[in-house]
Amino acid sequence: MDVVNAIGRRKEAIARIYVSEGKGQITINKKDLNEYFPTGTLQYIVKQPLNLLEVAEKYDIKVNLCGGGIKGQAEALRLAISRALVAIDAESKSQLRAAGFMTRDPREVERKKPGQPKARKRFQFSKR
């Protein structure tokens, strides 16, 4: 197997990944997974598709992550890993889709409107 690449997005975060055969090493921006995502919850989110298909120790993943916050980056990476696993083995797509890992979360930040302090918030109305 040669290198398979995929892309995942969430909010403002973009994850570009390169998957090759190896022994389960995940490198994000030249740092180890445990160093880049110190909390266990975010590590769990990233590894969900690998654990579902039981291939966590089979592939080495090199990641370029940019933009967004830490949670958005973790979810973007999860989507990218899911897409790469489908590119490697198309049979796994139904399993990943059933778990909800193949769907791109479309929610984005709503823009600020003129004459208002935020997107939906209004300045206080004064009758007199």
- Number of discrete domains: 1
Cα distance, first to last residue?
73 Å
Number of helices: 4
Shape: elongated
List segments where confidence is low: pLDDT < 50 over at least 5 consecutive residues: none
What is the strand tally? 5
Coarse structural class? alpha+beta
Short description:
By secondary structure, the protein is of the alpha+beta class. Helices cover 34% and strands 23% of the residues.
Structure characterization notes:
A hairpin with a 2-residue loop joins β1 and β2 (13-21). The mean pLDDT is 94. The N and C termini lie far apart (73 Å). α2 runs parallel beside α3. Strands 1-2-5-3-4 form a five-stranded mixed sheet. It has 128 residues and is α+β, with helices and mostly antiparallel strands. It has four helices and five strands; from the N terminus they run ββββααβαα. The protein has helices at 33-36, 40-53, 70-88, 93-99, and strands at residues 4-10, 13-21, 26-28, 31-32, 59-66. The chain has one domain: Ribosomal Protein S5, domain 2, CATH 3.30.230.
Key phrases:
128 residues, alpha+beta, Ribosomal Protein S5, domain 2, five-stranded mixed sheet, 4 helices, 23% strand, elongated
